[in-house]
Amino acid sequence: MTTDAAQLERLRELARGLGREVDAAGPAGVAHVVERYRGLESTGEARDIALAAVRANVVAFAEAVEHDMPADRWEAPLMALVHARRLARAGIGLDDILRLYRFGQEWLFERVSQLAREETDDPACAAALIEQAGLLLFRYIDAVCVRVAAEYEAEREAMVRGALARREGVVRALLAGEPVDIAAAEATLGYRLSGRHVAVLCWTQRRRDGVAAETGAEDAARALAGALGAGRPLVVSEHAGSVGAWIAVAEATRVDRVALEDALREATPGARAAIGTARTGIDGFRRSRREAEHARAVALASAREPLCVAYGDVALVGLLAADVESARRFVADQLGDLARDDSAHDTLRRTVFEVFRAGGSHKVAAHVLHVHRNTIAHRLARAEEILARPLDRERQELEAALLLAHWLGSRVLSTPPDD
């Protein structure tokens, strides 16, 4: 009889299979929708954007299922929002756009069902897998449609703001890899594309003193730019309460996560941020943005709700956590009793984690944790006592286990015994 764990792994394998075939699936999805809605048969540019939107939605759904991301944290991918804006400008109504998503859901469910039947020879198991995947797909499309509808309405309002519309259009074109006149783009954006960029995503669900959440997110992006010693960033709206930004930084600029977190707290209480790596030129403009999106996905999947997540801190998390059960065993082997899921052991793990992240500096770790340096030393000694080995023994394995525990929390930790 199939166990819940086995069924969950089949669901993840189904998602991985869907992700592997995304390049072929994208055109098939577009063809399915266009066949049922001829109004999409337009310019090559429009079809390219539609293809990118379908591809992005397939990737986002597959990643959400594979990594067991809570449904209330799902976000519409950027290209889905780009597509909604494109359709708004083409004069296609919101009801028609939502109908397109239902056609897309129909196609994706058919493909998911086929993959489920290929995944197992047991008809009952396949049926259960199809049912579970279908439910997740329904919830995903519902979440995306909410975001797409909001984006559509925002775009309709923005159409009267010509300068802003041209500015956002340039950014979308750059991210989509479309041919762009660089000089004209820089003039429209007021931003030099040949320089060195750090892409950030800022979001908040709260309001402060009657100020809209999106304004708070913009304030957060500008505060991050100030913390990096940069001028006014290039800021574009993502959706309600969220903005994307690019910050022009010097070659020698160091990304100080502690300073960035302090800047966020002061500028917009409740704001959070995901940060890409500093990269150069138009390719760097795109790559840093993709890294910020990866960092945001980890931030949203983390039970810790971290204030500020840098791509460099979480690039390995997805790889290390590809098999959660193996990751749990690895954490248990490396941390022993230090893997207990309670506040006392969490404090010790966090201390060792921050000391490692600070390159061994007790002073920096003390600043991050807001404690005295002597407290750091006492906690490290206690952690070594629980581990029954020095912290510098099997250092790489210990760091990897702490990284998993920090970001995935109870998914890889052990339940403390009852008193």
Key structural traits:
single chain; 419 residues; alpha+beta; Globin-like; Alpha-Beta Plaits; Arc Repressor Mutant, subunit A; 18 helices; 6 strands
What does this structure look like?
The chain is an alpha+beta fold and 419 residues long. The protein has 3 domains: 4-160, Globin-like (Orthogonal Bundle), CATH 1.10.490; 163-314, Alpha-Beta Plaits, CATH 3.30.70; 317-411, Arc Repressor Mutant, subunit A (Orthogonal Bundle), CATH 1.10.10.2840. 65% of the residues lie in helices and 7% in strands. It is built from 18 helices and 6 strands. Strands 1, 2, 3, 4, 5 and 6 form a 6-stranded mixed beta sheet that branches. Strand 2 (234-239) and strand 3 (242-248) form a beta hairpin. Helix 9 packs antiparallel against helix 10. The protein is flat. The two termini are 35 Å apart. The model has no long low-confidence stretch (mean pLDDT 83).
